[in-house]
Amino acid sequence: MNQIKERPTKLDIDKIRSDFPLLSRQMNKKPIVFLDSAASSQKPNQVIKSMDEYYEKQHANVHRGVYQLSQEATDAFEEARRSVQKFINAVEDKEIIFTRGTTEGINLVASSYGRKFLKEGDEVLISAMEHHSNIVPWQMICEQTGARLKVIPVSEKGELVMEEYERLLSERTKIVAVTHISNALGTINPVKEMIKKAHALNIPVLIDGAQAAPHQKIDVQELDADFYVFSAHKVYGPTGMGILYGKEHWLNAMPPYHGGGEMIKTVTFEKTTYNELPFKFEAGTPDIAGAIGLKAAIDYVEAIGHDKIQEHEAELLSYATNKLQDIAGLKIIGTATNKASVISFLVEGVHPYDLGAILDKLGIAVRTGHHCTQPLMDRFEIPGTVRASFAIYNTKEEIDKLAAGVQKAVNMLI
């Protein structure tokens, strides 16, 4: 009888790091410690090479040519769509719309759904921890339609106040739009429960999954999300490429967002008939290389395994939390019970920018500022934070460097 070879339970971090060429460079003459993956993750060779190969050997426009090269490009492009479908467990590949990113996906839903379904006196419900990209599009459509924006408050720990969420849901609520994981706090929201409560009142829900897709397995059928959006560049893929998942019946009910080629069946000067899904929402020449790069990124993540990624990042989060809490005067902003691998913090008497600038000189890349969540910063009455965010290629040794760097900055500035 053949023995089953056990899979290793830990990530081979050295091997993973060798896949990311940028991690071998220096920043300010120091080995780079990249702790800003929540803004945009680094790219493995597998993604870079897949896009290079497309441009070198396969480039042609898609869906428009009978010649072999165009057919090959179309096959690769549509295979990427099917890869995303499996990645998030959508029912049909036509429920996967390629966009430029999370921001465009939210704008598409806000505009198309809003024009069709929102009217004066209706309400759109978001939360106080949303990224600006899940605030401003809803403000814009509310201004156009006369609908009102309502906001779920956030507790001192950085968690949504669920009692208030339930209170705010009503027959006037026409859509809920909420982040899966806060980019500024790392809070993992109970979106499955939130969707269930909204659906009890026949209210559709959009989930901003930009921060969730890199860190955990997404199953849109299990969540029962009506819309789910994320960006390729946060999942080790290219910039300028994103995904809008929408349930087929909602996408069919919504008008197109952009007009032009590809999204049409027939065009006359009197009338245009629109294409079927998903092409109805994909006007113009798409980012073909971006889709191919996203597929390579998905293949990379799935080869490692979501369970291993979550375990590794949870260890980093716990380790970093303990190390940073030992620094006098340091306060972590966002202490939710359920968190992803993001730590936002302040040091008493030190401006976040000054701290970030000193860390930069030490080769440590962190994010400083309001993280496109100004209302959330206002909630905590702070100008911004220093944010360290971790990914599959980060190590405890890098966290040691971060803690030492913060302590050095504190010693210099206080």
Describe the structure.
The chain has a 7-stranded mixed sheet, with helices on both faces. It has a 4-stranded antiparallel sheet with strand order 13-14-17-16, covered by helices on one side. The N and C termini lie far apart (67 Å). It folds into 2 domains: 13-38 and 305-413, Aspartate Aminotransferase, domain 1, CATH 3.90.1150.10; 49-303, 3-Layer(aba) Sandwich (Aspartate Aminotransferase, domain 2), CATH 3.40.640.10. By secondary structure, the chain is of the alpha/beta class. The protein has helices at 13-18, 45-57, 68-88, 102-117, 136-145, 162-168, 191-199, 220-223, 248-253, 288-304, 306-325, 352-361, 374-380, 396-413, and strands spanning 26-27, 30-31, 33-34, 96-99, 123-127, 148-152, 173-179, 205-208, 227-231, 242-246, 264-267, 272-274, 330-333, 342-347, 364-365, 367-369, 385-389.
